[in-house]
Design goal:
This protein is of the alpha/beta class. The chain is built from eleven helices and seven strands. The protein folds into two domains: 126 residues, Nucleotidyltransferase, domain 5 (2-Layer Sandwich), CATH 3.30.420; 115 residues, no CATH class. The N and C termini lie far apart (51 Å). Bound molecules: 2-acetamido-2-deoxy-beta-D-glucopyranose (2 copies).
Length: 271
């Protein structure tokens, strides 16, 4: 296992574990394991939603792609290590975990390590991920797997951005001290682009023209060499690549989501 397992735990670490820890000891909290075409998502919600059909508050906690889903949960081999690790972050002994099928219920119940309770319900109509809420005005939109998976991607892009944001904002201090730039409210993309410009002076770095004011650009260019030893070129470049990729996925997935939602709404009015 070694490296792979360690990487996986790092991926799930920090933010997820921190959030999970703060959710301990809340008896009304129920977990939901949802399968999407390429992976699994874990949601949490308040159990009172079953009493009040309309008061739905469902939160996407984690989405993970699985290369081999049949190894993740399988009636002969049981629960795979990867999926078990993912569940263990969120779900503690005795807590409720809902799954979408009788088969999954049996596999998870048989797992000696997890010992969670189970529930089963038609999950489709309660799946309204955060992003989705913004996009639909229609309360009873039929949610399908594609919508859930797309929402999971969007969640993941946001997650990545949040994760990098903390580290990047550690440079606020230098930007203020060296260039008099107050970057505390800059979004992650603006900040990483500024840092990339600083660490690669003279290079053409693409960004929307409205991202920086001319004063900001001037200061960034003028002071670039004063940031030596303060900002790490390689780290900034890696984060920049990561975020640029994530932004383009996000744009594409948002467009796709719009399409899926419109299709679902259209389908609905035809019926
Ligand atoms: C369970 O795992 C076995 C062995 O890896 C595999 O042959 C089988 O297709 C899997 N079952 C399902 C339902 O995916
Ligand atoms: C930077 O801007 C934020 C918000 O505009 C403000 O709250 C903060 O005090 C500013 N920091 C400095 C050092 O001026």
């Amino acid at each position: 296992m070694g490296r792979r397992k360690q990487q996986r735990q790092e991926a799930a670490d920090d933010d997820d574990v921190y959030v999970a820890r703060n959710l301990r000891g809340m008896p009304w909290l129920v977990w939901l394991l949802f399968e999407t075409p390429s992976g699994f998502a874990i949601f949490s919600f308040n159990s009172y939603i079953f009493e009040e059909e309309n008061a739905i508050e469902l939160w996407l906690k984690q989405f993970q792609k699985f290369e081999d889903k049949s190894a993740a949960i399988n009636c002969t081999t049981g629960l795979g290590e990867e999926l078990r690790d993912m569940l263990k972050i969120w779900c503690r002994r005795g807590e409720k975990l809902m799954v979408g099928s009788q088969e999954y219920k049996e596999i998870i119940e048989a797992d000696q390590e997890l010992k969670v309770m189970w529930g089963i319900k038609n999950l489709m109509h309660i799946l309204v991920p955060e992003e989705q809420k913004v996009l639909t005005k229609e309360e009873r939109l039929p949610i399908n797997n594609d919508i859930v998976e797309t929402a999971c991607y969007l969640y993941h892009c946001d997650f990545l951005e949040k994760r990098h944001s903390k580290g990047l904002h550690m440079s606020d201090y230098h930007l203020l001290k060296i260039s008099g730039l107050n970057s505390s409210e800059w979004d992650t993309m603006k900040l990483v682009t500024a840092l990339k410009k600083i660490t690669r002076p003279g290079e053409e770095i693409e960004h929307p023209p409205e991202m920086f004011s001319s004063d900001e650009l001037l200061k960034i260019e003028k002071d670039a060499d004063k940031y030596k030893d303060k900002i790490y070129k390689t780290a900034v470049s890696e984060i920049w690549n990561d975020l640029v990729c994530s932004y383009s996925i996000k744009k594409e997935k948002l467009r796709h989501m719009q399409f899926l939602v419109e299709a679902a709404e259209g389908g609905q009015s035809n019926w």
